[in-house]
């Protein structure tokens, strides 16, 4: 994790400074009694830095940073034993976190409801999701348009009970004691919606099988 404890607010626009401070306040309230303000600020700023160099939509950077920091803090809380609810955690990883892993996350969340937790990440995160993947999932009544490509971090991988890899090869992280599965799926990048549908359907089949393995009853 990048150490950004000295992250200078003055290098960010006034609007983004305000948005980040508001995000820090929200996160501090959510994690009150678990993590100190300094830890939350560090995670928020390092999450901001993850997107600042690649994002083409600066206005949304504080929101992306807040969402990613929240996920990382939730993961760290699980790793450190601050939060145990018995729900299995699955992490879906691919190269750009723009197609396969996002479709898997969409199906898993849709089918598992609140009985399991799922996250996703990429070894070389893209900027936006693949439009054909969004369209193909919408045909199944699942909206993934609000998701965003993001990297994985150590705490997120360590918090997972199962890590599903899809094409990230040697770049995928390996931690002892974690269950790994590799799903050999075509990359939807550059394909139209019709060509993505078979990939989408195979992703759904594998997600349903994974839920069965985890003894999580699919809601649909």
TrEMBL record:
- InterPro entries documented for this protein: Phosphatase-like_N, Ptyr_pPase, Ptyr_pPase_sf
Q: Name one Pfam family in it.
A: LMWPc
Kindly list the residue ranges recorded as spanning the membrane: none
All copies of domain Phosphotyrosine protein phosphatase I, residue ranges: 88-213
GO annotations under biological process?
response to arsenic-containing substance
Q: Which UniProt keywords apply?
A: Arsenical resistance
Q: Please identify the protein, giving its name as recorded.
A: Protein tyrosine phosphatase
